[in-house]
Design a protein that fits this description.
The complex is a heterodimer of chains A (258) and B (430).
Chain A (H helix, E strand, L loop, with lengths): L4 E6 L5 H7 L5 H7 L1 E4 L12 E7 L5 H12 L1 E7 L1 H5 L11 H8 L23 E3 L6 H12 L11 H8 L4 H5 L15 H4 L16 H11 L4 H8 L7 H9 L4
Parallel strand pairs in A: 1-2, 1-3, 3-4, 4-5
Chain B lengths: L4 E5 L9 E8 L2 E9 L6 H4 L8 H6 L6 H16 L5 H32 L4 H7 L1 H22 L8 E2 L2 E2 L5 H5 L2 H19 L13 E4 L10 E4 L4 E2 L4 H4 E4 L8 E4 L9 H8 L5 H9 L12 H21 L16 E9 L2 E9 L5 E7 L1 H18 L6 H13 L13 E6 L1
Helix pairs in contact in B: 3-4, 4-5, 4-6, 4-12, 4-14, 5-6, 6-8, 8-12, 11-12, 13-14
Classes of the chains: A alpha/beta (258), B alpha+beta (430).
Chain lengths: 258, 430
């Protein structure tokens, strides 16, 4: 029997999500046994031509060339899965979407004319159909193995869309917002990290993006009315690693007075 | 046979990020070399403006998934410099411990999964594992132990969540750290095996006359602190970095090239650190270096695989020392109050010096940010290496020449995503 062909593609990103595959030290050789790693430049110089059974896509679309490339990748893939906040919501680099990119280019590069870039950093789903989106900045490597395993076995991935609060309760954390008055994005943030930040005594900063149907207005009302958080700070809290995800984008907009 | 040709590698493999190489050969001489970085620009230095000083460690970590701790460390040191804060004692030791974890996982990833396959003629570590199962398994287990250390201190291996300006959000108990000791002791022995394994590989005779640049600390092998020193006499505090080093924007790359103002290109990373700080290494590491035939200075970039292995032994030994002397601090961080100012930070990322500079307003908001990652500092030096290395190997068939050029690039463990503001190989024979 021929093995399913796996490809790993990169767009604008930090490489952390694809590194999560190499960080599965206990599972890596088993994964490499279950699939044919056909395209994965961070790990191998050998290239097997498509089409591919599963394409994992990391990173966001930020150049005119990216738009053409993602179309070709979609055409050559049976299943396309985005991994991480960049591919799923535009990533931290989507902060450019709220500024003038020409000014940004001039701020970083002495010769802006050498730089070819789009005005906005956008998620993969703005350009092609995506079969599954895995959240996180970075993704949780155990969830990544779960998603791969689910698609290889023709079942639905078990990656709950409830909030970080549920994970906090299951972990037995004491609520940092109720007990210490620390602003926390946990109530509106998609689960997956295992409630890491509250377990380390800080508020969630939303790196897994919005949960299913988040009530962001109610949360920010609590922050501003009872925790003394200023509007610009609310805006900055929502405008981070998933700044361009719809519900976070809108909530930030409501607090953008500048 | 024709003496003119071009070799192109459109997408260099086993490097972190996107880059390419272009090599032009004319009359059997190298006519041009360009290391092209086409990692799309992500504008970190621009969108940091208007963010708070305390956002910098989490945001800049996102520049690179391979060495997020380096970004967190350089940014907190720069901020603390601007805000007049000093982090000392056990909190300082914990920062070193966290850095040990990153060096271990990053170096071991490169030694076993990215670099060793070149020497042994495999496209990747998975193919290599079929003939060298023990070595690859050892590498995976070592890397996992490095990651366990990062995960305990930082919450997770990629983009840890526990580093803040002033210290940490939560500090571990002695008991939690003691839980790592058995694995770290196994790993220190495995790292010694790794250095011996690396030393058995075949190395081309390729010694170059580099200007090495690294941090140097009065007592320690450098992680977070020290003067910036060079093999040609630079010895400056980190705050004077901008007066001696300059970035130049070239057309073929989205990474900026770094130069020493009064001279030219320079070399950062394991070879530079080792050669400038050999006397700061503990006896156990110096002993293994002698056993595997490496002197106190190493100018062959292919042997960086041995030096990374030696630094891995160091990081494990240092981690065990820190854990042994650890007492849980009463507070996880020192108090920080926003104020206007300029701060500089430089720490030793696994790939070399990572420099950050920030200007803050009176509210602690970032007005200006500058980040100079190790790979952009090495870019010109990599091109020079390629020129000199390829010149002696032009008679090779293109596919072999290409692979050897790729290997010469991977000597630097280039981290292209890191090139905030980097590969494709092209060989053109005319």
């Amino acid at each position: 029997m021929t093995k399913p062909k796996l490809a790993v593609w990169k767009f604008a990103s930090c490489d952390g999500c694809q590194l999560s595959i190499l960080d599965c030290e206990d599972e890596l050789l088993a994964v490499a046994d279950a699939v044919e790693i056909a395209y994965f430049p961070e790990a191998t110089r050998s290239v097997v031509s498509g089409p591919y059974d599963i394409s994992l896509v990391e990173g966001s679309v930020t150049t005119p060339h990216d738009i053409q490339r993602i179309q070709r990748i979609r055409k050559g893939s049976k299943v396309l899965i985005t991994i991480g906040a960049c591919a799923t919501a535009g990533g931290i680099q989507a902060l450019r979407n709220y500024k003038n990119v020409k000014e940004f280019t001039a701020a970083v590069y002495a010769r802006p004319e050498y730089i070819d870039t789009l005005d906005k950093s956008t998620p993969i789903s703005d350009h092609v159909f995506v079969d599954f989106e895995l959240r996180g900045c970075p993704v949780n490597k155990y969830q990544l193995v779960e998603v791969l395993s689910a698609f290889l076995n023709g079942r639905k991935p078990n990656t709950p869309a409830y909030s970080v609060c549920i994970e906090c309760k299951r972990r037995g954390n004491i609520c940092v917002m109720v007990s210490q008055g620390t602003p926390c994005l946990g109530p509106v943030t998609h689960a997956g990290c295992g409630a890491l930040c509250p377990a380390y005594n800080r508020g969630c900063y939303g790196c897994f993006g919005p949960m299913e149907t988040p009530n962001t207005a109610s949360l920010t009302n609590e922050w501003t009315q009872h925790l003394g958080v200023s509007s610009p700070d609310v805006m900055r809290a929502f405008r981070s690693y998933n700044a361009y995800a719809e519900s976070f984008r809108k909530e930030a907009q409501n607090h953008d007075n500048g | 046979m024709t003496t003119d040709k071009t070799i192109k590698v459109d997408y260099l493999a086993r490097v972190e990020g996107e880059g390419s190489l272009y090599l032009k050969v004319k009359d059997n001489r190298v006519a041009d070399v360009k290391l092209r970085i086409f990692e799309p620009p992500r504008f970190f230095e621009a969108f940091l403006r208007g963010r708070q000083y305390k956002d910098a460690p989490d945001i800049t970590a996102r520049i690179c998934g391979i060495c997020p701790i380096a970004y967190q460390m350089s940014s907190v040191h720069a901020m603390e410099d601007a805000l007049g804060v000093k982090v000392e004692g056990q909190l300082r030791a914990l920062r070193r411990l966290l850095y040990c974890g990153e060096w271990i996982e990053s170096h071991v990833l490169h030694v076993y999964m990215l670099h060793a396959p070149d020497f042994l003629g495999y496209p990747d570590a998975i193919a290599m594992a079929k003939d060298y199962p023990d070595a690859v398994q050892r590498g995976l287990k070592l890397k996992k132990i490095g990651n366990e250390l990062v995960t305990l201190l930082g919450g997770r291996e990629i983009h840890p969540i526990n580093v803040k300006v002033g210290g940490f959000y939560r500090v571990p108990t002695k008991r939690e750290l003691l839980g790592l000791v058995d694995n770290l002791k196994w790993a220190r022995d495995a790292a010694i095996e790794t250095a011996k394994f690396a030393a058995t590989l075949e190395f081309p005779d390729f010694e170059q006359d580099y200007e090495f640049v690294a941090l140097r600390h009065p007592d320690e092998y450098p992680f977070n602190e020290g003067h910036i020193v060079s093999s040609q006499g630079i010895d400056i505090p980190v705050q004077e970095y901008p007066e001696h080093f300059v970035e130049v924007h070239v057309a073929h790359s989205t990474a900026l090239h770094s130069r020493i103002k009064e001279r030219d290109n320079y070399f950062v990373g394991p070879l530079a650190r080792y050669s400038l700080n050999y006397d700061r290494l503990p006896a156990i590491v110096q002993e293994v270096a002698r056993d595997v035939g490496l002197g106190p200075e190493c100018r062959n970039p292919f042997k960086s695989i041995i030096v990374r292995s030696l630094e891995t032994i160091f990081a494990l030994d240092e981690a065990l020392r820190i854990i042994d002397q650890y007492e849980r601090p009463a507070k996880p961080s020192v108090d920080v109050r926003p104020q206007a100012g300029v701060g500089h930070g430089a720490t030793e990322a696994p790939r070399g010096i990572l420099y950050h500079r920030y200007r803050l307003d009176e509210k602690g908001d970032i007005v200006e940010a500058q980040i100079v990652p190790p790979t952009s500092q090495n870019q010109k030096t990599i091109e020079n290496d390629l020129w000199n290395y390829a010149e002696t190997r032009l008679d090779l068939p293109d596919d072999q020449l290409q692979w050897q050029c790729e290997q010469a690039i991977r000597n630097y463990d280039p981290c292209i995503s890191c090139s905030v503001h980097f590969l494709k190989l092209e060989i053109e024979r005319e």
